[in-house]
Amino acid sequence: MNDRNEYCVQRGSARLFTRLIKGFVIMACVAATHAFPQATSTAAPADGVYDLIVGTYTSGKSEGLYVFRFDTKTGDAQQVSVARTVNPSFLEVSRDHRYVYAVNELPGDNGPASLRGDVSAFAFDAASGQLTFLNKVSAQGNDPCYVRLSPDGRYLFVANYSVAADPGGSFAVLPVQQDGKLSDAVLTVHHEGGGPAKGHQDNAHVHSTVFSPDGHYLFAQDLGTDKLWTYRYTPDGSRSPVSPAQWRYTDVKTGSGPRHLIFGNDGRHAYLTSELAAIVSVFRYQDGRLKLEQVEKLAEPGFEGTQGAAALHLSPDGKFLYVSNRGDASDISIFAVDADSGKLRRVGRQSSLGGSPREFAIDPTGQWLIVGNQNSDTAYVFRRDRQTGLLEPNPKRIDIGSPVDFKFVAR
């Protein structure tokens, strides 16, 4: 596509413009928004009990978002409420714990391309464990699969995977109002391109949007284009909320399909799952740039079944990294993290005891890891050895329809 710029100015409080830049398309509507106050994280509950919010797919047994009381002393979980909403497959909780945001992942593999997904906002009463629906806005794309609040809480970023080539993979920026409700998108960024994996990389597929530790950069992981796109976060009102960074993107191995990115506790390293290649990669990070330093396969040597790298999370102390692998593998790889180099050393592997462990979470105390088996309608709570990183046998089982995402919230 040729480089060009197109501008269309409308009278009124908002300025609407469309900017086409080689490699991706930005469509933005810049409007006045209110800053959303964010509180610092609260201390752990005295009784060791957290709220656990679980996102699901609702095509089967599930009704929506579930809230459990999770006891970190015993690993027991007791359901307290459910909020009915469609396919809330990924969640974000505000830092003050008053609001929860969930994608409504539509249309799915068999839905019409004309159907856009949504993002729903809920008020959350941590004391009672109740979610109250506030509003819902369009995700401005198909199959929203990831949401992340900006560091200042002013915007919610949503990644649209988009099975359909039209509109294709994108991410949208949704202003957050002072009452927790969402406003219509002020910015939508479409990527262009694809990769060699037919059926998986026929077009762009934005799978996650993650901020750098300093909050100055946004990384958009695009499974379809094999790129980690880099943007500057510019919320000062002088331009749109994000703009292309000087270091436009980081290429990864062709056909590998980058999915989720997280940063290490030291802020100097980042870790990436690549779904199609079933690998985890280590990068050194500095001022918006990522440099590849290590790649590790997830499957055991000689494995010949299907697989697909999914989620990755660090233990609270940053000493261990856990990575889920779906398909016939259906397990979690456990790596020790070198404190100086950030590099990984495998220390174990644990079956998820079910089918398709898409997401998982480690509780804030570091004692428990809970993994959801999307295709088996189960979640398992493993006791975690904080010294070795290993997961102990005989986990506790939770029966829940198509569990996907998990978020712990202090009460």
UniProtKB/TrEMBL annotation:
Homology family: Belongs to the cycloisomerase 2 family.
Domain of life: Bacteria
Keyword Hydrolase: no
Taxon lineage: Bacteria, Pseudomonadati, Pseudomonadota, Betaproteobacteria, Burkholderiales
Pfam families: Lactonase
Protein name in UniProt: Lactonase family protein
Keyword Signal: no
Organism: Paraburkholderia youngii
InterPro entries in alphabetical order: Cycloisomerase_2, Haem_d1_sf, Lactonase_7-beta_prop, WD40/YVTN_repeat-like_dom_sf
Keyword terms of this UniProt record: Carbohydrate metabolism, Glucose metabolism
Transmembrane spans: none
